[in-house]
Design brief:
Blueprint: H1 2-10, H2 22-33, H3 40-46, E1 52-53, E2 56-57, H4 63-70, E3 77-78, E4 81-82, H5 84-87, H6 94-105, H7 112-128, E5 133-138, H8 148-159, H9 165-186, E6 189-194, E7 196-197, H10 202-208, E8 216-217, H11 227-233, E9 241-243, H12 250-261, E10 265-267, H13 277-291, H14 309-329, H15 335-353
Helix pairs in contact: 1-14, 6-7, 8-9, 12-13, 13-14, 14-15
């Protein structure tokens, strides 16, 4: 659906895509992408994008963000704080990433205390450049608060290259608690998306490297694993915790009740494998009755294909309008409320949930 809509509405290509036409269509796309009308800033304005956020490592100096802001262009491009490479002890090159964190923060990370200070400094810098959110990927969702002393013991083992797999689990769970604590203090919206077994196909990984496909969903348990975090911060009005999932079986059983109860919890839209017409239909049917529309964040996409932005959002708008129309014709809601809900799902909820407001300098 995306590809057909993108070819027709973005590139003006209505020829059916198949083996015989593929090279011809590829050449037409390449030709169009070389024109000024298809430069990124031109597309940003053509698509009527209000805010576009990148996802950036905690160690990223955000040089390009500073250059964009200094260029005088009016587009609203913001960073998002993604600290996985320094939070997860089993991340590739973790020790080198800690050295990079020391360098970019100006705080020499030598123990757990200075590590936390460096992370807080980076979050503050991201906020200066317009960031409103953090983003966290974990294979299994687990939260548990350690004492500062115990956290430092694990951190010192990691610095020395002696951390165990158990250390990594305990430290990751503790750092999710710390990220929630920091979000309460600095106001950054916290996003967590667990459940992707990455690089599942060993031969593809060995030939092409990480993140080239073969990422498969795994079962995730939210109710027990999030309880320590939610008991401490879930009722705090200063926290917004947006949960995504690749495990559809949790929609009605866990996620919708958690979002319906805890003020801090909101549900992200169907993601990755379920960012589709059928996936959206299932999401509406299994989540909304218990969680309610206003405990979701409407729709945001995480595309790596810039030209897919308008068509992905259009699929969501149409799916949402169709679902609301079904409620209307069955007299479960009236047309007036349906119109308000449709706008909320398409626009208002995302803007409110992610706390978007214009840059002070714009």
């Amino acid at each position: 659906m995306w590809l057909t809509d993108e070819l027709v509405t973005i590139f003006g290509i209505d020829e059916k895509l198949n083996g015989a036409s593929a090279q011809r269509i590829y050449d037409q796309i390449s030709e169009k992408l070389a024109t000024p009308e298809f430069r990124p800033r031109a597309l940003y304005e053509r698509f009527n994008v209000e805010v576009l956020c990148t996802t950036d490592a905690a160690t990223d100096p955000l040089t390009y963000h500073e250059q964009i802001r200094a260029s005088g262009w009016r587009g609203d491009i913001r960073p998002t704080f993604r600290p996985d490479n320094v939070l997860n002890l089993d991340a590739a090159n973790w020790r080198a990433n800690i050295d990079a964190l020391s360098q970019v923060s100006g705080i020499q990370v030598r123990d757990y205390r200075t590590y936390i200070a460096a992370l807080e400094q980076r979050r503050a810098f991201f906020k200066q450049l317009g960031a409103t959110a953090t983003d966290h990927a974990v294979l299994t969702l687990y939260t548990n608060e350690l004492s500062q002393a115990d956290a430092d013991v694990i951190f010192q083992r990691a610095l020395n290259g002696d951390a165990t797999a158990g250390d990594a689990v305990q430290f990751s769970g503790h750092m999710l608690m710390e990220m929630a604590r920091m979000s309460v203090e600095d106001g950054l919206v916290m996003q967590v998306h667990p459940g992707s077994f990455r690089n599942h196909n060993a031969s593809v990984y060995q030939k092409f490297g990480a993140d080239k496909g073969a990422d498969i969903p795994v079962t995730i348990e939210y109710t027990r694993n999030l309880r320590p975090l939610l008991n401490k911060y879930g009722n705090d009005p200063h926290l917004t915790l947006i949960l995504f999932t690749l495990d559809e079986t949790t929609y009605a059983r866990e996620l919708a009740p958690l979002a319906g109860h805890y003020p801090a919890v909101k549900l992200g839209p169907p993601w990755w494998f379920y960012d589709s017409l059928n996936g959206m239909r299932r999401f509406f049917d299994t989540v909304m009755e218990t969680a309610g529309i206003y405990n979701t964040v409407g729709f945001n996409d995480d595309t790596r294909a810039f030209a897919s932005i308008p068509v992905r959002h259009d699929v969501w708008r149409r799916a949402g309008a169709n679902w609301l129309a079904g409620l209307t014709v069955r007299h479960l809601i009236d047309e007036e409320d349906a119109a308000v809900m449709a706008r909320a799902l398409a626009y208002d909820l995302a803007k409110q949930s992610y706390r978007f407001s214009p840059h002070e300098s714009k």
